[in-house]
Fold these 4 entries.
Entry 1:
Amino acid sequence: MRHLDGDILLSATDLMRFMGCAHATTLDLGRLRGEGPEPGETTEGALLLQKQGDAHEAGHLQKLKSAGTSVIEIPRSDLAADAQATRAALAQGAEVVFQGAFLSGNWGGWSDFLQRVDRPSHLGPFSYEVADTKLKRSVQPKHVLQLVLYSDLLAKVQVVAPEFAHVELGSGERATLRLADFQHYARAARARLEAFVADPRPTRPVPCADCGLCRWAGHCEGVWQAEDSLFNIANVTRGQVKKLEAAGVSTMAALAALTEPVRGMAAGTQARLVTQARLQHGRKSGVRLHRCARIISGRTGSLKRKRSRWHVNHSSQLPVAVEWLPPTPRPVHSQAFHSPSGEMDQPHPLAPEGWPPFPQPLNLNLTPPFTPVPKLAPLHPILPPHTRTRRPASVRISSAICGSGTSRSTAPSS
């Protein structure tokens, strides 16, 4: 995206970025006007992909030359001059034109390959079709946007619309697309981008698949942290955030204090998100929280942490179900909290001000098959001095087998 003769020149890259994240386009427009934040540096992952893509493109070019195909290469320089050179190369009837350039209206760019086919056009008894090299092993929707754009720009040169477009995949295979099947979608996407550039609408940063390689990722991350956004919560989805915001919950702190049900959200999903929000908000506010668990069916077992997940290990063949309790502030040995009635109906003395009382223990993660057992005695979340290590390798958990008894748990900080 850049200025050209007083207008904004758009490219296939701008179109693909807009369809993936409209907020990135908003930041690009602000950058073009000299406003807004500075983009971040290109990540190592993006540089590596670019290097591999260039190598794949060069390998395909060498393959064509080795097969005796006549190739005209257009040295990349000024877009307008390259577009004129491409027109001249197409008129000569070369079998392949490499790095052909197009410029028409407010759209332009460089294609990878233009391949000659036996179909009459304004150029003569032949015409050209677009071929692009991609590292992917299958054609992606964003590839279609690029191929249709270059094919439409090519049609203005040869006066005949190409029938097909091709993708040289990273697997070595060639995918051929019938443009008539995709051109309406791609042209509608271009119209949406043109309308957005002419009259930008307000946007906000939303996590998407393009964040990993986006130059604005650092800026968006800073916005989420400053706003205490719901997107900071681990494993939350955009649909869940939309439902929470519709219910008036717009920050992680508000979700941590949520006690009312959210319309359209399952109770188990809400409990999991509230639990996660309390854990993360407690860490952010300086209050160390921990989760207590107990085995409510099966024999003596243990919880072990593997790859940031807790797994239940047991030596019997009986089914095992784990009951996760709501997070509580990590108690000091002399200040362990326990309600004789068996309910966590009072805020923990170390809980941040304003937090609601913790509800009854919830069965958040039951491993089927589950055999109901009588309710166990209340859990004592006591951390003996000799077990208060920073990151214990495993935690032993014992329980009565299908009967009443006292469960005792030593849970690590999360």
Entry 2:
Amino acid sequence: MTRRSAPTRRGGVYLAVAGTVTFVTLIGVAGIAWWARADDRVSLVDDQRQAAMLARAGVELGIERIASDENWRKTFADGGWADATTFNAGSISLTLTDEADGRLEDDLNDNAKLRARSKLGRAARSLEVELEPRPVAINALSTGIWAGRKLDIDNSVSVVADLPIYADHHLVAEDYYIDSDLQSCKSVTTERGARSETVVGPDFYTQPDWDAFKEAIKTIGTEIPRSAFGSRIQNAVLSSASNPFGTPDPDGIYWISGSGPNDAFSLRNVRIVGTLIVFDADVRAEWWQLWEQTDNGWPVLVCEKKLTLSPGGIPLIELLAGFNANPIGTPYNGEEDNANDDTHPTRITGLVVGLDDITISGGLDMRGTIIAQNDVDITWAAIYVRDEPSTRENPPVGFRAETSQMRLVEGSWRWVAD
């Protein structure tokens, strides 16, 4: 008998295999698609990250362009995008706006908004900061001693200065030792010469705006009545925390008004941390002096009439003077106390302004600039003048150039939507 074999299911096996292959293929396609989307997302995130970095670089680029262009307010059309700058695969565009009145050019004292817009691939970011103007000092504040008319140096004078000594008219030096650069608008006459002697043009130094300065100093500070002291102010500290004649001024700015040139008085053993302005009286600063200008920009001393700077050049020993020069609230080099047990140098740091003549004698350690509207006479003196850049960082009204520098307003960084 012949046996029959059981029929095989070849078609079913084929379908099973085909189904398995299709399933695996679908999984593969889905995986590829998922990885493609994931890679796309990674690419977009990377573009966004790099676009953010470009926007930050754009802000720095904008600040650099402003700093290098004195006419930047005219260069940038208000609200208009600057030409795009390309960086590799990305680009940066800049815009500046004046939100005060919509006009960048009309007022140097207006703030400005700087926006950097970056593009890279499919990503775009915009970063905005606020800039505020900071006044630029006239170059007269880059001298050690500046005379609005003539300057005389005579009678055994020793002058060592990091900065030039300048006279807007004639400069005459006799019987001296000078280690400095002497400059004049008209002539320099010397016996033995100096480090250099230069006659500069009439426009080499920018003149202070004396009228603007005189008006500005009338509006600041706290009065010290002339009747509060006699012929001198002695053993006194004037600061935002100390005023032996009344309530301290919060800015450390004080003014005294005399009754005329004959109403002269002297300063003896006086420490100023701030500003002292003297109207209508001659002033003589003698013995020990320690003056420090603060960052509000006003000069450490202003004298409307004749000023004589004649410090002794010796330190103050508090125990011998019976005077505490660094009381609580007015530290020196970070130290403050209620005891008379310290020693302090004689030194002036900042800007000293005389609206008439200035005479300098004695021993003077000057860190900053002395400016007289009229004459300067240096006689029987040993003077060391050092540069003090901080005196130019925030110049007072009348000593500012027509241009200004822009600086970032702290905390103004913010991302904005396009």
Entry 3:
Amino acid sequence: MTEDIGSATTPANLKNTEEIVEVDADQRTMARDLHQLNQENEKLSGVLATATHPLQEMNTNEIDDLPTKEPAVTNPHPLRRYSLLGNSAELAKTYSEPYFVLFYLALRGQWTLIYAAPNSGKTLLTLYMLSLTCRNDEEFGAHVYFINADDNFEGMLEKLRIAETYGFNMLVPGYKSFRAADLIALLDELCKSGNAHSTVIILDTLKKFSDLMDKSQQRRFNEAVRIFTMQGGTVVALAHTNKRKGADGKPIPEGTADMLNDADCAYLLYEVSSNGSTKTVTFENIKSRGHSPQSLSFEYSTKQGLKYSELLQSLQVIDDELLARRELLREQKEDAVIVEEIIRCINTGVISKMAIKITAAQATGSSERQVLKIIDKYTGSHPQKHKWEYRVGERGRKDFRLLNSFEGDEDEF
């Protein structure tokens, strides 16, 4: 008898049936759980829809009266409170274009130093340049405070009369309770009161306000002046130079280098020439932040018996070309004795450099080094600057002649 294969129950068929039943049971369980979750969501949505927020039950005034809480700032930066970010517009209200408060030497808003030897005319020249600025701007003098701390009574009185003529202020230690030691505190007061930007202070002289050999004192003074100028204030300080000059023959600023390093601008003032009745001096720039000239020269009378006001009136500016011509004449006058002896040597047949050096030094009492310097200084072919020239002779010897005195052999020169 043949069995029905399709209806037969085998172990494999039985296993598949059991798996199908298990899957159906899992699906029914998931469906039931999903149905319950949907019911719970519907109940929650109904509660939220009918709920009333506490603020909705309050009127507007009650809401406005609620305390506000600023968001907490964690770990604020310690430098943030000092930042000027966003203050440029306010600061710009006190700014004005830089201009010279002292005849092309000292700029507004800067700290300028003028170094000069005692009795070289630094105070005279400063007052002269200040008077020029006051003439051009009648309101300028009211903002200038000239502190005369290095004078006697007669000199102070003369300068006070000049100040009254041009309308600038003069302060003198010992008068009206003013003391030089109060300057740093006064600079701080000017900054705090907002008056720094319109104030020009001239110190005569610097050593009365700070010990130029004490670095600690200088540091405090320099810091006070820098804060003052950073707020638009102007300081011009007159200072002395050492008795000893540098290798270049020019004066050396007195004190340590701290003062010069911290200043914005600095000049050396020194004598160029003097003939007994007039003196010529030059301001030479040794530090600059701005458009200050490299040099500026003046001439004034040195006649005895002149009043200070008359000395001021005698001052005049000397241009560079005129100064150069005068300097050349002065040097020629100083060199004249040695030059005349060298010319005599050449005219008498002493023409080698070595022979001229020995002969001229003995005749004039000068050193051989000084004679060599004069020989080299006036050697050349320019008729207005030079007096002789040379040609190389045997064994490299230099034979000198006065300009245009050789005959023939000109092609060898």
Entry 4:
Amino acid sequence: MGNKRNRNLHIVRDPDKDKLLRPGGEAAAEQAAADMQEQAEQSKKRMRKKILMIAGAAVLLATAVFLVIHLQTYTAVRVESTYKIDGAADGSYTEFAKGILKYSRDGVAYLNTHGEEQWNQPGQFKNPFVDINGTTAAIADKGGNNIMVVQEDGIKGEIETTLPIEKIAVSRQGIVSAILKNEASPQVICYDAAGNILVEHQASFTGTGYPIDVSLSEDGEEMMVVYLSVEGGKYTSSVSYYNFGGAGEDGADHQAAHEEYENTILAAGFFLNDSASAVVGDNCLTFFSGKEKPEEAAVISLDKEIKSVFHNEKYVGVVLKNSGKAGYELRLYNTSGKKVMSEDFSGDYGSIKISGNQVIMYEGRRCCIFLASGVKKFEGEMDNEILEILPISGVNKYIVMNANGMEDILLVK
């Protein structure tokens, strides 16, 4: 058969496709793609803007909540949990490591934050007092001869002195310095935790003066001693630093630095960290800087009566009695001697301490708490007499020791 052409058939074309194939169609395709990409970018920008607005609102809300919580004064507490402890009223308590150290005439015990006894070391103390350096503590019998050195995991050693104990200081390694009473010639002796004598320093009224206070650096390599001497009706205080490393080899008795203060009675000296220390007297507060040979960094004149002094590794705090008006002034200084807080308050508080960035004052059932920023966080009363109080993790949460045992409390309005 011969091929026949079907005259009824014809080619059908897509007019849009035809446009793309005609001259200029390729440019139109590129323009369409660009438009789509622009729309996608605009959509992403709108999404990012929306996310930023939500995040900003969340930050503002969080800031507002923070300010509401931390910039107001609470006046009441709510007891969250109570842990009964037998004989709780028979001991003294102090914040230590991650819990609380209980010490009494019968020995020393370490409690966790649930009131559970982690260890108990029997002892005999007529008048126990304690010095703490980090996670190491020394408990001594004032006027007696016994010193016990403990750490978070238990007893590290025991020391027996030959003369009555007046003051002690402990390093984080367990080295103990003690001022021992001797009417003719008082002594300052350094012991290791096992009771071996490391350094023996003889003081005298006519030479160095009488040792008033002693402190040890964290590593136990440096010792500070505050002296008071009286001659011809005039009194002079001094502070000496003894370095038992290389810096003190050339000095007499390993003395690395010495400063004297006429007509001033220095009452206390302490290390804030390995390179900062301070001494406080009846009319001045002096800061020292430097590890091997400390030098005066700042001298602050105090024109008010000092009621209390306390410190931690970041701050030195003083409570001064106001003149010309009632109440007291609370001041905080940093390790360089710069005043970072000054606030007035009323009421007498027998126990004042600093924990982290909080100054905690209490007397009987009354308590007052200031932040280092100057905010008065709490002023009110507890249900029972306070034996110790310390902040714990969580907003406005604290542990309180009283005659019944341990309580978890929350500050409330």
